[in-house]
Amino acid sequence: MSHTGSEAKQPLLDVQGLRKYFPVKGPLGVLGGVKGYVKAVNDVSFQLYEGETLGIVGESGCGKSTMGRTILRLTEPTEGKALYDGGDIFQLSGKGLRAMRKDMQMVFQDPFSSLNPRKRIGQTLEEPLAIHAIGSRHERTERVMEIMHKVGLQLDHFYRYPHEFSGGQRQRIGLARALVVNPKIVICDEPVSALDVSIQSQIINLLQQLQDEFQLTYLFIAHDISVVRHISDRIGVMYLGHMVEQAPTESLFAQPLHPYTQALLSAVPIPNPQKRRERVILRGEIPSPLDLPAGCVFHTRCPFVQDVCKSMAPVKQEVAPNHFVSCHLYGTERE
């Protein structure tokens, strides 16, 4: 893992006020008009620094995967900016967008559905090189063979089809496809959640080796906070489309500030009984992103809810060095 002093450097990627809303049609479809919006990502801001891994964690449906896909323009944003290499990704088109996609690649959650079942693996891995007009045909094949070796695949795998591989091998293929164009940023969208636990650790270790070798920067999205802790320099915690806490990994685990983060960490099994956290049980169901509660989105389940939480959304603030939280428990009037 790379431990970069982020505060002294310019961010490689600067996401500001990102929103992604999905319209919900009425029972008559287009004729019924839009009856509301699913606010999948709601005013999320963060910075990603060169050489680091920023982990994004949260329950299923919190918007973390949508956020990753929106940054890469696989789905179009509703609002916000994503500043990279002196420009806004959301304003790019044509050649500019293609150049950005060479620098920013994605590893998907389900490696099988992201591979073309009719193409041999060699063809699949050469395709990004052909799209970006990198090298001659012979050079592309050599590059693919080199990357396959780096991710732990055999050279004869070049001629096989996706169904001939195990889940772990397919994820290695997904990694190879992301790395073949030599990107700067890799967005890992739950890359190990579909794998057995023993295979998960192999892929995580491989990601760390590749990061050191290729000077990669990762945005690592997962719902397992133990996996995120192992690989991340910093962690962002998401709940219902909002980033409720951001902090360096050790700071977050030593002193989680947001009640939701405290509940997440209290559920992590720890072998030593003396080091276990007091379990925080969250009551109630997660509200629908189609009908978010007023004020703080977490107030309907928060064990420390106050009146102000029900009417006013909390503001993101830096409570400790590089440790940000959006919660009324840490309001300026209490400091």
Task: Looking at this protein, list some descriptive labels.
ATP hydrolysis activity; four-stranded antiparallel β-sheet; AAA+_ATPase; Rossmann fold; alpha/beta; ABC_transporter-like_ATP-bd; 335 residues; transport; eight-stranded mixed β-sheet; 12 strands; nucleotide-binding; 10 helices; disordered N terminus
Summed up:
The chain is α/β, with parallel strands linked by helices and 335 residues long. The chain has helices at residues 64-71, 94-103, 121-131, 137-150, 167-179, 197-214, 225-231, 249-254, 259-266, 307-311; strands at residues 13-26, 29-48, 53-57, 79-84, 87-88, 104-107, 185-189, 217-222, 234-239, 242-248, 316-320, 323-326. Helix 4 (137-150) crosses helix 5 and helix 5 packs parallel to helix 6 (197-214).
Task: Give the secondary structure arrangement, pairings included.
Elements: E1 13-26, E2 29-48, E3 53-57, H1 64-71, E4 79-84, E5 87-88, H2 94-103, E6 104-107, H3 121-131, H4 137-150, H5 167-179, E7 185-189, H6 197-214, E8 217-222, H7 225-231, E9 234-239, E10 242-248, H8 249-254, H9 259-266, H10 307-311, E11 316-320, E12 323-326
